[in-house]
Design brief:
The protein is about 80% helix and about 0% strand. It contains 7 helices and no strands. Helix 6 (about 70-90) runs antiparallel to helix 7. The longest helix is centred in the last third of the chain and has 39 residues, at about 95-135.
């Protein structure tokens, strides 16, 4: 039997594991590659942030803070986009300004996607927690 806090620590892996359920249907798809490169890499850094932030916190704090996590994830994604664009811009100085403008637009678009996907995962996490509580897999 899991404690609720243990479940929440396991649920942090959901955004990385959930797409793997569909990989056979999307095998070879650029969507999966983009998902893990543009979302997965920054999410690994974000997971470290989450583990340190939630380590000694109460369940109530974690449940309240979870609804803000998609908003807090956006800077991690934007940083990767701007860093990549900056590196490309430095190696091709004549395209630096264009790379920064494209990065800003892409970061804005990715921010919208992060919010949609992030709140999807937060909702799934809490819905699954309720189901597992009812099934007595998680201690109340």
């Amino acid at each position: 039997m899991l404690s609720l806090k243990q479940y929440y620590y396991l649920a942090i892996w959901l955004p990385l594991v959930f797409p793997l359920l569909f990989i056979s249907k999307l095998e070879g798809s650029t969507f999966i590659h983009c998902y893990y490169i543009l979302g997965g890499i920054p999410y690994l850094f974000f997971m470290v942030f989450i583990f340190f932030k939630f380590h000694s916190k109460t369940i109530e704090f974690i449940e309240k803070e979870a609804w803000l996590l998609p908003l807090k994830f956006i800077p991690f994604c934007a940083a990767l986009i701007f860093l990549g664009s900056f590196i490309i811009g430095i190696t091709h100085p004549d395209h630096f300004g264009m790379m920064m403008i494209m990065a800003a637009g892409f970061a804005g678009l990715q921010g919208i996607i992060v919010l949609i996907a992030g709140y999807f995962y937060v909702t799934i996490t809490f819905a699954l927690a309720e189901l597992l509580r009812d099934l007595r897999v998680i201690k109340k």
